[in-house]
Amino acid sequence: MPKQAISSSVIRRLPRYHRFLTELEQRKVIRISSKELSAQMGLTASQIRQDLNCFGGFGQQGYGYNVSALREEIGRILGVNNRCRTILIGTGNLGRAIAMHVNFQQRGCELIGLFDSNPTVAGRDLAGMPIHHTDTLDGFCRMEKPVMAVLCIPRDNAPQMAEHLVSLGIRAFWNFSHADLILSDPDILIENVYLEDSLSTLAYGLNQ
Amino acid sequence: MPKQAISSSVIRRLPRYHRFLTELEQRKVIRISSKELSAQMGLTASQIRQDLNCFGGFGQQGYGYNVSALREEIGRILGVNNRCRTILIGTGNLGRAIAMHVNFQQRGCELIGLFDSNPTVAGRDLAGMPIHHTDTLDGFCRMEKPVMAVLCIPRDNAPQMAEHLVSLGIRAFWNFSHADLILSDPDILIENVYLEDSLSTLAYGLNQ
DNA sequence: TAGATTGTTAATCGATTAACAATC
DNA sequence: TAGATTGTTAATCGATTAACAATC
Fold first, then answer.
1. Which residues from chain A sit within 8 angstroms of residue B147, using beta carbons?
2. Which nucleotide is closest to the Cα of B38 by its C1'?
3. Residue B69 and residue B90 in one domain
4. Where among B77, B92, B113 does a domain terminate?
5. Within a domain: residue A204?
6. Which end of chain A has fewer CB atoms < 10 Å from its terminal CB, N or C?
7. A141: which strand partners?
């Protein structure tokens, strides 16, 4: 555990390091220097060394880094071996795709429940799990104690749903609902995902 | 058009400004000061004024900004009224969800073709369009001249497919394929979307 | 030991914030 | 005119890069 808070710029680079190291390991690469890795990833060796040293000295002078040991360390920092209990609310197009396409386990999460407010959808199966009606959310959370929620609901419902989920013990939101979630409790983690904003930056670039 | 290249930090904030201004306009708000807007968006008034002044003086001293005029200007900068011709490759879970869920038109893009390499999928309809077999890609591009491609294909196929699409005239990639796209031509625009990396930062936060 | 490469400090760069003169 | 708020310059802050002593 780091002594000092790590900047979010650094944390957001960790999954990418992990990805490259996983691939190197699969290719049976044993050791790598910050210089080699930087060339492959398109960043500077300095940055890699700075980033890694936020968490401790994982390398060895004159040698570099051991690929599997480093991958292991970064995985541990990211908590990839955890099983953070997660529910998903809203099984429209996007909700279904996320439930089926996203590998939650690989990221230290476990999808334990799916919910939808539409009674005709409730009861159906998705990603090997039944979809529950949102009416049963309170009881489910009391029993199963999820800590993370994926929000794939319409934007107008999101703030209210989020506050309710906080009262049921949710500590983190992966929010796809097209609304900037701003909650009263500052300790709750929020990742607002705006897929379309990323599309807009491409459209901007094409105009120039 | 800006004289000097605008930093990507600024450009990435534009869609969010646009979103907030759209909502203000819907709420019949006529004018807003950078101070009021900053309070609503959770950033500083200075930053808003700096950002907007990259593109020109849209405000008026002593008054603030006219909501619809400013929204219009930002929309124009982002090219929301364009119809950038876009194809989508790969109609698995994620590809289907993107085709149906993402509002391309709102972001200045138009989805004009869907492709899949699986012959049993080709011919089916999705989002009101037929899915073509990837074998027909070359002819389609020569006829229809798309400039953007959404990649929802497996990671191993992505680099090769991307290079091929560049040769067919594609200038921008919205890449969901779990591979860091790095192309030989530096003028090609790439947005690598790593949904799962965003999940990892949440998992990290919960561990602290 | 000599060569290589880290960990870490110092320098640079860019982005954000503050301040204020210009002006509506 | 007086008050408000921009546009813009200057100051600050944080992140990235460079440099190098420590050390394997």
1. 206
2. C17
3. no
4. B77
5. no
6. N
7. none
Residues paired with residue A133 on neighbouring β-strands, in sequence order: A116
Instruction: Tell me: do B31 and B56 sit in the same domain.
Output: yes
Confidence of residue B57 (pLDDT cuts 50, 70, 90): very high
| Any domain includes B202 | no
Residues A193 and A113 in one domain: yes
**Least CB-CB distance to A206: which of B15, B148, B200?**
B148
Please tell me whether any atom of strand C lies within 7 Å of the Cβ of B61.
Answer: yes
Q: Which of A122, A112, A192 is nearest to A151 (CA)?
A: A192
User: Is the CB atom of residue A90 positioned under 7 angstroms from any atom of strand C?
Assistant: no
Nearest CA in chain A to B1: A208
B116: β partners: B133
Taking only the tens place, the pLDDT of each residue in A10-57 is: 999 999 999 999 999 999 999 999 999 999 999 999 999 999 999 999
Exposure class string for B13-22: b at 16+ Cβ within 10 A, else e: bbbbbbbbbb
pLDDT score recorded for residue B1: 44
Supply the CATH number for residue A157's domain.
3.40.50.720
Protein CA B44 to sugar C1' D12 (Å): 15
- Domain count for chain A, please give it: 2
Instruction: Check whether residue B88 and residue B191 sit in a common domain.
Output: yes
Task: Show the domain range for B163.
Answer: 84-197
Among B16, B203, B204, select the one facing A197 at the smallest CB separation: B16
CA dihedral B93, B95, B97, B98 (to 10 degrees): 160
